[in-house]
Amino acid sequence: MPARQHLIVALDFPDAHTALALVDRLEGQCSWFKVGLELYIAAGPAIIATLVDRGHSVFLDLKLHDIPNTVASAVRAASSLGARMLTVHAAGGPAMLAAAREAVSGLAAPPELLAVTVLTSMDRYQLASTGVANTPKEQVALLAQLGLDAGIRGFVCSPQEVAELRALSGPDGLLVAPGIRPSGTDHGDQKRIAAPAQALRDGASYLVVGRPITQAAEPAVAAQSILSEINAALAEMAPK
Ligand code: C5P
Quick one: which H or E segment has residue 89? Predict the structure, then answer.
């Protein structure tokens, strides 16, 4: 797979115009884009259709978390938009995960469901405040197992959990890692980070990169440097 099949650019923008201006600058280089809550709420489902019409793949990061019936209905509605990946919170529990999984079964071209385990903003104290006594690491493993038991093979995880989730999910696992920072770039508010090559070596299937590309003076140059790093890592990992 070419390097661009492993790179998802996070379109964290307040409106469609600004998001599409960035997509224009990356045309021909990047083929995967993540639409999160901010852009989805501002621009609506039309932004997904626009990206798909331009030949791009869309990761719709809605992090659904509600009662099973509501999540199943939302998953069905989202599945008709043309996104290729969709997130749900594993913390919604086994019944909610099973309902989400059931909602996509039988669809002609369903999005791959990705379960979000523990948000990277949650540390041990934050978890304890919500009544969870497990460490973040223990909780990630527990929630990932709930996803696997429900037949979900995709997970969003910090680069620091990739290796463990790869071991849990096996070769079929689809692991999407945000918190990617090429060496020499600003970490911003991300704490549990890794460089692109390291995340791939640890078993990530896709890397989500936002600000290192979107806020760069030259986004295309920044994307190219990350793609080169991905290429080098893939060449190094290829069976000799
Ligand atoms: O700008 P940056 O590269 O930090 O953007 C990372 C993207 O991945 C953002 O859209 C952020 O919401 C998302 N994300 C994350 N950590 C998670 C899940 C999603 O950073 N656990």
Answer: strand 85-89
Give the DSSP per-residue string, 119-171.
Answer: -TT--HHHHHHTT--S-HHHHHHHHHHHHHHTT--EEE--GGGHHHHHHHH-T
Instruction: Work out the number of other CB atoms within 10 angstroms of the CB of residue 184.
Output: 8
- Nearest Cα to Cα of residue 100 among 158, 159, 150, 156: 150
pLDDT at residue 190 is higher than 70: no
Burial classification of residue 237, based on how many CB atoms lie within 10 Å of its CB (0-12 exposed, 13-18 middle, 19 or more buried): exposed
Q: Atom of ligand 1 at shortest distance to CA of 215?
A: 1
User: Residues 114-140: pLDDT tens digits?
Assistant: 999 998 888 899 999 999 999 999 999
DSSP string of 9-64? EE---SSHHHHHHHHHHTTTT--EEEE-HHHHHHH-THHHHHHHHTT-EEEEEEEE
Length of the chain: 240
CATH code of 3-237, in short, is 3.20.20.70
Q: Ligand 1, atom 11: nearest CA belongs to which residue?
A: 178
**Best residue for ligand 1 mutational test, from 8, 208, 213 (most atoms within 8 Å of Cβ):** 208
